[in-house]
């Protein structure tokens, strides 16, 4: 049977394809010289091998992807080399790897101990690599103690873990501990550059730095990200393609935002923030990145700290140019604001507004005490209590002005206007009469403003008034009750419903010598009315042109019975007026 030509071509192409090997496996270091960023540890291990000073129990600990297992395999191969081996010899029969995450029982450790007793057939040592050793159970650790402390001469144990604090102290005391560090951005970027050259990929230096920063010190993660980005962009790796694929904010966003902040262009800054959110980023990412950008600008202002900037050379030049435009004081205040927003972000109920308010504050920072020209500026004094006017904090000055105005309103005739911006203080005109504060200007009796106002009243002594010279025009009880009701209506309009309700409790009656009598059901209502009676008496005296009016209040608790407060009492009063309402309630089965 003859195979069609197109099927033959497909099969041939399939046979020609090589399986793809990820870079983390393809470029796994084969010697200690190839290990990235762990020079101190690799040199120590090489010297220990050369001087025959190697411990039989080693513990490699550190974050993921920094070379713990790789160094363990290289060490296992290195100690078995005797000069007669072949270059591709990996001594696989002498290396035993155990994953403690899935083999963490006592039986697994006992099986391992049984294997330890058998000497190697090829080479000098048997090497047992136990990965994720912190996953062993407590009983497995205890079963492993004796063998770890006194292993056979041909056995070397290499334990690897990312969480050293979970290993029991008795195991730690039996091991020589090597702490692997995170791989720096510079080292990771250089190794990625080497891999890109090996694969014939043209990569921008800033793009490799973005990948290294995203990996957060793990070389394995950096290689995985590199493979993903290469699959996206092909043989040419640009910073724009990397930031788009990794969904990270580009440096240009923060450079633009900083320029807008320095120019105090709040509307454009808000638009930029909204565009950033529309690309899928959240406000927390934006503000934390902005704080990091301010930190990098501060680092660029000194030659000594320039090495702390972990970016490519082209981006570093841009940082140095922008750092010359900003002042140190601005960066310190901006860092404080951005960091404060970062701390409050998770607990804020309106996170979007929090970030917008922060960037508006940043764009409102003053320079040399003066604001730069802008079409939309929010003064920094609205946001910070540190802003000053003539050496006096703005918030404190406004509070003092408000207190003086409150005291001035209490005096009649009013005090002459005082210009607080001038250093001299004018003497107020003589005071003839003290008038209580109007209800709309009242303050809490426990506030500092009320205490100062009270002292001001005590210091001002009003001259004695001759009541004989004041008018005493006669009036009828009906007129007094009419003006009484008008005053109560004014109280209700101003929202003082409690006092208005107390004054409506009884109908006022006029006695001899122009004394107004009113009867209240309890002492609480009496005290409330007495506290405010001067306002009412001044009103009645002026309306009826009689300044001999006085108020007499009595308490009669029996009166309280004629007032209905609860739903049941109100129903009883309605029932007294109309007994038919009881029939209506029973007929329709109504409740209170």
What does this structure look like?
There is one protein chain. The protein has 592 residues and is an alpha/beta fold. Helix content is 49%, strand content 9%. It has helices at 5-16, 23-26, 39-50, 68-78, 106-116, 138-149, 169-172, 185-198, 205-215, 219-233, 239-246, 251-262, 266-278, 283-300, 313-323, 328-344, 351-362, 394-410, 448-459, 477-493, 497-503, 523-531, 533-544, 567-577, 580-588; strands at 57-61, 95-99, 126-131, 155-161, 176-179, 202-203, 236-237, 388-389, 392-393, 411-412, 433-434, 509-511, 515-520, 550-555. Strands 2-3-4-1-5 form a 5-stranded parallel sheet, with helices on one face. Strand 12 and strand 13 (515-520) form a beta hairpin. It is elongated, with a radius of gyration of 43 Å. It starts with a helix and ends with a helix.
Salient structural properties:
592 residues, 3-stranded mixed beta sheet, alpha/beta, 49% helix, elongated, 5-stranded parallel beta sheet
């Amino acid at each position: 049977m003859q195979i069609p030509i197109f099927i033959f071509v497909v099969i041939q192409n399939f046979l020609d394809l090589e399986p793809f090997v990820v870079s983390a496996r393809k470029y796994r270091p084969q010697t200690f010289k190839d290990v990235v960023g762990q020079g101190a540890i690799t040199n120590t291990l090489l010297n220990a091998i050369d001087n025959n000073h190697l411990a039989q129990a080693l513990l490699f600990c550190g974050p993921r992807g920094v070379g713990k297992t790789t160094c363990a395999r290289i060490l296992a191969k290195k100690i078995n080399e005797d000069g007669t081996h072949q270059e591709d010899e990996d001594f696989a029969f002498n290396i035993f790897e155990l994953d403690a995450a899935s083999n963490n029982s006592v039986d697994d450790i006992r099986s391992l101990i049984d294997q330890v007793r058998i000497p190697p057939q090829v080479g000098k040592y048997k090497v047992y690599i136990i990965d994720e050793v912190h996953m062993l159970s407590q009983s497995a650790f205890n079963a492993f103690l004796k063998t770890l402390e006194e292993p056979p001469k041909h056995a070397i144990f290499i334990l690897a873990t990312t969480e050293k604090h979970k290993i029991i102290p008795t195991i730690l005391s039996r091991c020589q501990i090597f702490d692997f560090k995170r791989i720096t951005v510079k080292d990771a970027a250089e190794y990625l550059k080497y891999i890109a050259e090996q694969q014939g990929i043209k990569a921008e230096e800033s793009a490799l730095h973005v990948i290294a920063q995203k990996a957060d010190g793990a070389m394995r993660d950096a290689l995985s990200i590199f493979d993903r980005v290469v699959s996206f962009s092909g043989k040419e790796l640009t910073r724009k393609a990397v930031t788009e694929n990794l969904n990270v904010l580009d440096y240009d966003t923060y450079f633009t935002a900083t320029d807008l902040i320095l120019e105090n262009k709040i509307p454009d800054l808000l638009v930029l923030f909204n565009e950033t959110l529309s690309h899928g980023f959240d406000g927390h990412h934006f503000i934390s990145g902005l704080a990091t950008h301010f930190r990098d600008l501060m680092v660029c202002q000194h030659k000594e700290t320039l090495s702390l900037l972990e970016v490519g050379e082209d981006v570093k030049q841009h940082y140095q140019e922008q750092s010359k435009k900003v002042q140190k004081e601005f960066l310190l205040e901006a860092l404080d604001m951005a960091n404060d927003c970062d701390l409050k972000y998770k607990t804020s109920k309106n996170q979007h507004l929090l970030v917008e308010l922060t960037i508006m504050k940043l764009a409102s920072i003053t320079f040399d005490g003066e604001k730069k020209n802008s079409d939309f500026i929010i003064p920094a004094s609205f946001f910070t209590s540190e802003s000053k006017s003539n050496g006096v904090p703005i918030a404190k000055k406004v509070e003092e002005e408000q207190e003086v105005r409150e005291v001035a309103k209490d005096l009649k005739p009013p005090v002459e206007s005082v210009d607080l911006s001038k250093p001299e203080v004018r003497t107020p005109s003589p005071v003839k009469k003290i008038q209580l504060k109007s209800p709309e200007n009242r303050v809490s009796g426990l506030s500092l403003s009320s205490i100062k106002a009270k002292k001001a009243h005590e210091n001002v002594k009003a001259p004695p008034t001759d009541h004989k010279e004041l008018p005493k025009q006669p009036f009828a009880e009906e007129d007094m009750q009419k003006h009484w009701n008008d005053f109560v209506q004014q109280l209700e309009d101003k929202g003082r419903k409690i006092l208005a309700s107390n004054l409506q409790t009884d109908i006022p009656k006029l006695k001899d010598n122009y004394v107004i009598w009113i009867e209240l059901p309890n002492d609480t209502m009496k005290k409330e009315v007495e506290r405010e009676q001067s306002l009412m008496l001044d009103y009645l005296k002026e309306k009826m042109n009689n300044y001999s009016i006085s108020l007499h209040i009595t308490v009669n608790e029996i009166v309280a019975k004629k007032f209905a407060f609860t739903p049941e009492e109100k129903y009883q009063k309605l029932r007294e007026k109309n007994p038919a309402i009881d029939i209506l309630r029973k007929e329709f089965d109504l409740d209170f």
